[in-house]
Specification:
binds NADP nicotinamide-adenine-dinucleotide phosphate, about 250 residues, 7 helices, alpha/beta, Rossmann fold
């Protein structure tokens, strides 16, 4: 963890999985206007990212493997308290995808997917909704997925973990009316996670339903920035961002 740049702003935007294709693009965009708390499990990658950001705002990094949820709450609480910061916005971009026929799935696979996709953000939000930090927390955005709404072979576990996020925003929106909670039902975007679906030889017919074609990380950061707007009149919602795939 380190402070790399000087700043004038107070609160921070936490990006989990800042080393993701979408997380990195988001960091590039958001560092223009606010302090960032970049999360990842790889210190080197996070340092390279923070070095590449040209900003007058503060950049902090928090290194943590989200599959280890047992000690996450304590680690994150200590980190935030030791840095004497408040987190105003959260974007949960970390995610784990594992496509496996259901009968081949082991408990350890399910636990790992749920730890990274769901339990980690619950633990983080348990800290940020505590009495000490609740008032500072303005907006939370989850990156959910198209297949949390539709069936896909071999994808039941990942899809159900994203479905949990869709439900989570509703309960939290009601329980904490001072904060906006929304999820993005994200269609196919070419990233490290999905690259294997785009390479030559892969069956591209799965993208036929995308009226506007598949998305780019930039398309996603635009939507996230909309959901992070301070005056947004929207909470507890699932926003489809899928190039029209869901209605075709
Ligand atoms: N791309 C799509 O088509 C698509 C569609 C729907 C939803 N999404 C969601 O969008 C989000 C961003 O995905 P992406 O496409 O940009 O994928 P990506 O590039 O593969 O990013 C995944 C991120 O999660 C992090 N991560 C994975 N396991 C972790 C762990 N145990 N501890 C800490 N961090 C961990 C990765 O860290 P490392 O860099 O260290 O691996 C990386 O930062 C994910 O939540 C994904 O489920 C993507």
């Amino acid at each position: 963890m380190s402070i790399l740049n000087a700043s004038s702003a107070q609160g921070f935007t936490l990006i989990t999985g800042a080393t993701s294709s979408i997380g990195m693009e988001l960091a590039l965009e958001r560092c223009k206007g606010e302090n960032l708390l970049l999360h990842g499990r790889d210190y080197q990658k996070l340092m390279e990212l923070s070095d590449s950001l040209s900003t007058r705002f503060k950049i902090l990094i928090w290194v943590y493997d989200l599959s280890k949820v047992d000690s996450l709450y304590e680690d994150f609480r200590k980190f935030v308290s030791s840095q004497d910061i408040v987190v105003e916005r959260v974007v949960h971009a970390a995610g784990q995808l594992k496509i496996l026929p259901f009968r081949a799935v082991k408990l350890v696979d399910t636990q790992s997917i749920y730890n990274v996709n769901v339990f980690s953000i619950i633990e983080i939000l348990r800290v940020l909704t505590s009495k000490e930090y609740r008032r500072s927390l303005q907006s939370v955005v989850f990156l959910s997925a198209f297949f949390s709404k539709f069936g896909d072979k071999g994808n039941a576990i990942y899809s159900s973990s994203k479905g949990a996020l869709n439900s989570l925003v509703k309960g939290l929106a009601v329980e904490f009316p001072g904060t906006r909670f929304n999820s993005i039902i994200l269609g196919a975007v070419r990233t490290k996670m999905t690259d294997h679906l785009f390479v030559s030889g892969a069956d591209k017919s799965r993208f036929d339903r995308y009226i506007l074609g598949t998305g780019s990380p930039r398309d996603v950061t635009h939507a996230i920035s909309f959901l992070l707007e301070p005056s947004l009149w929207m909470t507890g919602q699932e926003m489809f961002l899928d190039g029209g795939a869901s209605i075709n």
